[in-house]
Amino acid sequence: MLDVRAPIGSRISPDGKTLYFAWNVTGTLQIWRTDGPNKFPVQVTGGEDVTRLAEITPDGKWLVVMRDRKGEENPGLYLASTTAPSGAALEQIQHLPKVQTQLQFVSEDGKWIYFRANDKKTDSYGIYRYEIATRKKELVFGEDGLWWVADQLVDKGNRKLLLGKATGALTAEYWEWDEAQKKLSPLLGQGEREQYQVAYSATPGELIVSTPKFGDFRRLYRAKPKGKALESADVTAISPDAKHDVAGFHLDQPRKVLYYTTNESGYTRLHALDGKSYAEKKLPEIATTPGVKEDHVTTSGSSWDGRYVLVNAAAARHATTSFVLDWKTQKLTQWVTPSTPEVDTSKFTVPTLESYTARDGTKIPMFVRRPESCVRAAAQGGEPCPVVVHFHGGPESQSLPGFSTYGQIFVDAGFIWIDPNVRGSNGYGKQWLAADDGPKRLSVITDIEDAAKHVRSAFAVAGKAPKVGVMGGSYGGYSTLVAMTKFAGAFDAGVANVGMSNLLTFLLNTAPYRRALRISEYGDPEKDKEALVELSPITHIDKLNAPLLLIQGASDPRVPVGEAIQMHAALEKKGATTKMIVFPDEGHGTQKRENKVLEIGHTLDWFETHLKGKKH
């Protein structure tokens, strides 16, 4: 099952003849190319370190790639020649220990590569530019703060950078940096804490803004910035007033077409607008499987002239499939087919969108995958199938339907697989997303326990409740630890992957560039100490009464390995049934195939043993 793989992060050459993408078919994500639709792919990069494609230069001669070491999340930037003989080594732009170097953009003339790095201060990003011809870099902008380049334009020969500055986990303010005058001017978001995604529009002096400020859901607007908090009089809506979020958007390089996606109850829909008039542009219907609607249709970018756009489609029974739309010919062509050796994905289980009721009456959405054998057993009054409740990370993330080899592995093993979207999840409006911020988490963390109560009742067969396991990674790992300690007895076994065991030590030890953003989400260690202690799983460890497996990466900068070590030590002292697995060459989650095999194998075995009673 782990040999099922689909390319990600595609970029098309300026002439539309070659597609570059990242693919983990070797067991580690590397860069590949294909010289035409469904042509045999050629590997461009290799080795044991995860390598991702960031951009291709306008002349098509260079790929800009990001490479990480051992999951440390301190990637470096490199150049890969598209014209050199096969096997040419990468050229390093910058890769420094304990420093994040991240591409921001490549200039439209192909001369400059702009990137950000926290090499001067660990909790601030400076903006640099690197000249390809001379291989020299220079600092462009160096004020303190978590800055990034949201967009850029050249006005009468002078480059202006649209800079974002994070003010919270999801909130930001935006500024304009004039390179020639070295002047920083406020645009919007100053004096408020609001969610914004911003880009320059095709109209001078105007911005495209995605925000939920004027309703509960994120919507697209044209805006005239005034250097302060955005007001309704400053904006004009360009996307419908719908009860779902605009998930994201981008303009092509010539600013002719505006692409945006909507998150409709977890399903992703792609839209296109004319870049100047904002009139809707019709996109061709994608049906990888005739008669079956895709769960997710997205775009991963356009060619430099905007003629070609990369469109990706995925559904429960097929992995992500890559297409190229040629606006000139109006032709949509499939370029890459996912790899599915000896796996009939047409038999994968299609998740159903259901819900459970929390103790305060709130309906909590969840996606459920049921094995056919469990459906038959329930109809015939047989034994209830064990259930695994899988909580997503983030916490500002979302469990989505669609293709999942991970979930299917458990379905094939006879488990019902459930993905809830508890309060605090993305995709259900601003109020839902902010429901667990800071001390408010105390009021909604009970959604975790209520999931177990619902499963034991609604999934019972002939009056017999099923065994229920809980698992998740990152914040989902934290949710698992909360489920097993604060809500001990709700679940029969748990597997926590890179989860926080103590919110105070987590906030103290997480990477400096993340700390301020995490405090805005979880709470201040001084002001909110009482709530953070109460919400820390290790506080309630004496209540734990079921088996718990801990999985961790040694190089994790987000949730340091100490979170798992201190939890495991406390569990062993208590005499609990527990085990800890630490991968020395991984960070925040497993990336390498051999480690993924071990992670899934141990997780499945844990639930087979403690939910099904498997004997060793």
Q: CATH superfamily of the domain at 348-612, called what?
A: Alpha/Beta hydrolase fold, catalytic domain
Described by strand count, sense and barrel closure, the largest sheet is: 8 strands, mixed
CATH top-level class of the domain at 348-612: Alpha Beta
Q: Helix count, per DSSP?
A: 11
Strand content: 25-35%
Q: How much is the average pLDDT?
A: 95
Characterization of the model:
There is one protein chain. The chain has a domain at 348-612: Rossmann fold (3-Layer(aba) Sandwich), CATH 3.40.50.1820. With 616 residues, the chain is an alpha+beta fold. The longest helix has 20 residues, at 593-612. Helix 7 packs antiparallel against helix 8. A hairpin with an 8-residue loop joins strand 6 (62-67) and strand 7. The radius of gyration is 24 Å and the shape is globular. The chain is built from eleven helices and 35 strands.
Essential attributes:
single chain, 616 residues, alpha+beta, Rossmann fold, eight-stranded mixed β-sheet, four-stranded antiparallel β-sheet, 35 strands, 17% helix
Briefly summarize what is shown.
The protein has 616 residues and is an alpha+beta fold. The protein has a domain at 348-612: Alpha/Beta hydrolase fold, catalytic domain (Rossmann fold).
